Amino acid sequence: MSSSQYPSVLPQELLVEILSRVPVKDLMRFRCISTWWNHLVFDPSFVKLHLQRSSRDTHILLTFRDYENDESRYCAAPCSTQNLIHNPSSTIDVCHRFNHDCTILGVCNGLVCLQDSYRGDEFEEYWVRFWNPSTRVMSDDSPHIRIRSSHYKYPYLFMFGFGYDDWSGTYQVVFLDNKSQKMEVRVYSLGETCWRNILTCDAFPTLSVHGAYVCGSVNWLALPRSSSRYRWETVTINELEIFSYDLNNERCSYLSMPDGLSEVPPDVPVLEVLKGCLCLSHHQGTHFVVWLMREFGAAKSWTLLLNVNYEDLRIRVLHGLPTLPVILCWSENDNVVLLASYDSAEFILYNMRDNRIEHHELFNDDKFYFFSYDYVESLVLPRLN
Amino acid sequence: MQKTEGEESKAENEEVKQVTLMTSDGVKMKVEISIVYEMEIVRSFIEVNDADHSVPFPLPNVSSHTLDLIIELVKNEYDDEFMKTFSHDELKEVLVAANYLNMKTLLDFIATAIANLLEKKSVEFIRNFFNIVNDFTPEEEAEIRKTNEWVFQDLDED
Fold first, then answer.
1. Which positions fall inside the SKP1 component dimerisation domain (chain B) (predicted)?
2. Count of CB atoms situated within 10 Å of the CB of A250
3. Which domains does chain B have, with CATH numbers?
4. Which residues from chain B sit within 8 angstroms of residue A14, using beta carbons?
């Protein structure tokens, strides 16, 4: 560096400093600037740097069923949480449509794991694909899992989950082959050619089908100490736990429910992910209750996020309990949660500081079964580079 | 940290709260020590050398104009409005200088500002902005454009 003149071309390390702060859509366009730019955009270390610099918790991936001409489509739409909170129904414009049998297993670093299936009389087949909505790149199908339907008897059903192992840098799909005696854990890593058998452990009644991914682990609600003659009505609070599979050390463990959860809810709770934390929601009397595990694995960190009467949410309880509302997003700064209620077919923006509804809005025509996933726009490739 | 041109560089006494910097175009500039402390390359030298204060610290890669802009940016606590008055060349000069001086906050600020400027801009704008020679064949470039047509919509005018 002896010249006092500004160099006519910036050094590559400074271009990387700039480009790692540019949105994905623009970078996809900049691929045709030159061969170096084209290679940079999907270079693994650049993808990682770009992801590190991307702000978290600004977007979610919203999914729903769209009924059109008596046909149901599975839809997914990345949304800015700010737009969604202020204008739920008009925010959903760019959406991707999939066939009816498709479903999302999970979303990690902006990479979506889609599951597809084929159901025959005797056999069912399941397979996954990986999809990045920001780059619109889709992988090929994974190897299929073929199962004999008669091998699974309620309450023992198989389960899936999707997560990322930071240590090995691999995206993994977990299949819990949950038969009445033993459960086999099988894993498919993005880019591999087969599902690997990892371990065998005790089976447990299936309470949630899709695992919730947090901090390198995929989690399902579980009743590890329940007998095979399981009925939800007879479950005791001590039986209810979270089965947690650690992708890195390939081990299973159990996490406790919140201390404050003193009695078994009338219906099976829902375990999902909210802002990178495990989130448990359930009915309690006439209330909708939501817990957040602030620090993964630490039972003491369960925090009550919401405890609100259905009347205050203007969800009318006519026959028994309403369908559990779905938490679409939570803005800590604004102290609001956006809920989707199926009984009233509307979005509810609830202010948690003042305990009041700020806004409610009916669902768009023909759109139903909303759900949301933590999402970040990323360059992560759905295949090995 | 490398010493430039093997010269015995010295800093002003801290009591004065100013350090003299010598820019590439030979201008001696007295700069407040709080600003100089953001320049890791100068700070690390000042901290280990308790030496003669009379000789200015040489910055052979930073012009007086660029140093002026940097001082104003730091004084204004990285004001977006002030930075918007910069020309494209000034933005790039400040980026290169921030990197050379090892000013982490400034580097982050200016890289983010340039990144924001590039949003919704055409490929041609970017090539001009960075002086980049297109080394694709027309067929190769057309191929990438064709497979990603959706990213070429709703762009700003150049």
1. 104-150
2. 14
3. 4-110 (3.30.710.10)
4. 95-96, 99, 111
Residue A357, burial from CB neighbour count under 10 angstroms (0-12, 13-18, 19+): middle
pLDDT of amino acid B70: 96
Query: Mean of the pLDDT values across residues B43-54?
Result: 70
Q: Do B95 and A14 touch (CB under 8 A)?
A: yes
Provide the ipTM.
Answer: 0.87
Kindly determine whether residue B115 and residue A7, on different chains, have CB atoms separated by under 8 Å: no
Residue A382 neighbours by CB under 8 Å, 6+ apart = A111, A129, A130, A131, A132, A137, A138, A139, A190
CB contact under 8 A, B93 and A6: yes
Is B72 a residue whose pLDDT tops 80? yes
- pTM, two decimals, is 0.90
B-chain residues near A32 (CB < 8 A): 123, 136, 141, 144-145
| Domains (range + CATH), chain A | 1-53 (no CATH), 54-375 (2.120.10.80)
State the pLDDT at residue B50: 62
Question: Could you give the percent of chain A with pLDDT greater than 90?
Answer: 68
CB-based contact (8 Å) between A39 and chain B? no
